[in-house]
From TrEMBL:
<keyword id="KW-0315">Glutamine amidotransferase</keyword>
<comment type="pathway">
    <text>Purine metabolism; GMP biosynthesis; GMP from XMP (L-Gln route): step 1/1.</text>
</comment>
<comment type="function">
    <text>Catalyzes the synthesis of GMP from XMP.</text>
</comment>
<keyword id="KW-0067">ATP-binding</keyword>
<feature type="binding site">
    <location>
        <begin position="29"/>
        <end position="35"/>
    </location>
    <ligand>
        <name>ATP</name>
    </ligand>
</feature>
<keyword id="KW-0436">Ligase</keyword>
<feature type="domain" description="GMPS ATP-PPase">
    <location>
        <begin position="2"/>
        <end position="201"/>
    </location>
</feature>
<comment type="subunit">
    <text>Homodimer.</text>
</comment>
<keyword id="KW-0332">GMP biosynthesis</keyword>
<protein>
    <recommendedName>
        <fullName>GMP synthase [glutamine-hydrolyzing]</fullName>
        <ecNumber>6.3.5.2</ecNumber>
    </recommendedName>
</protein>
<keyword id="KW-0658">Purine biosynthesis</keyword>
<keyword id="KW-0547">Nucleotide-binding</keyword>
<dbReference type="GO" id="GO:0003922">
    <property type="term" value="F:GMP synthase (glutamine-hydrolyzing) activity"/>
</dbReference>
Amino acid sequence: DWIMGNYIEEAVARIREQVGDEEVILGLSGGVDSSVAAALIHRAIGDQLTCVFVDHGLLRLNEGKMVMEMFAGRLQAKVVHVDASAQFLGHLQGVTDPEQKRKIIGREFVEVFKAEAAKLKAAGADVKGAKWLAQGTIYPDVVESGGTKTKKATTIKSHHNVGGLPEQLGLKLLEPLRELFKDEVRELGVALGLPPDMVYRHPFPGPGLGVRILGEVKPEFALLLQRADAIFIEELRATIDPATGKSWYDLTSQAFTVFLPVKSVGVMGDGRTYDYVVALRAVQTSDFMTADWAELPYSLLKRVSGRIINEVRGINRVTYDVSSKPPATIEWE
Ligand code: XMP
């Protein structure tokens, strides 16, 4: 049976044996899988691991700071923070098509990561340079991309994957979570000392706010959306459902805010406003293939709406998305 302490010891021993005294690079996204992989590999080989955190400027509010505090701060791991927001936003300028935006973000991500990895690999100062690329691949990913083609025939949204990267970089692949299911990855993360808040987070798409700002991604839209979304998430975490004793964050599978590049009229004090609209989205699902919109309490929606409109100047209207999947998708793009 599953005894986490023993599992960690075995996994650590396996990683040490595999890697020896060579250096490892890992792409840290702030998501559960790469975070747990980083914590486990760091436990095994300490400073032989360098994490590369590519910040595309389309993350949640303060995400970059949190990732750095957690990994560079608390875990004392080597982390390179690449602030590539100007580069990503530059390439996205004038682009409105969702698939095009995904492609650009995916491509830039690979470019930036490759450049950083090449630098680390060439770094003579570190004696050898990296020989391994670590990824937080988990068992369901292995099954999905393996010989057994369980993939859908039609691709609704092209999720950018980083396949082929190790070959392109001339690195060996290290995937210590390959045998684990999501629940096990989460348990492992907690056992490794990662905060449960981080380990039990809702999923966040690779292209991030790039697909939650409808149409053209403008830096000022991203700033408004980050602030509005932070309020929504904060209130979901703070609001406990009396029937279950759980927070509405834990009662939903995914919840986020969408920025609509549409202006509507409002009134504030004696004045007329003409500002942007956001939509709140919260769903319950077991597999993300189908999903129901969550019946959040009106009192919660009211508090979120009031706070967003009062605290985020530039947004004067909040709506709630009551569409299920299918026929709507979870994300708006
Ligand atoms: P949809 O919108 O297709 O989303 O109902 C299903 C799940 O997939 C996530 N999603 C993405 N994840 N890259 C990702 O890494 C993407 O391009 C992408 N698009 C959607 C979405 O957040 C939800 O969990």
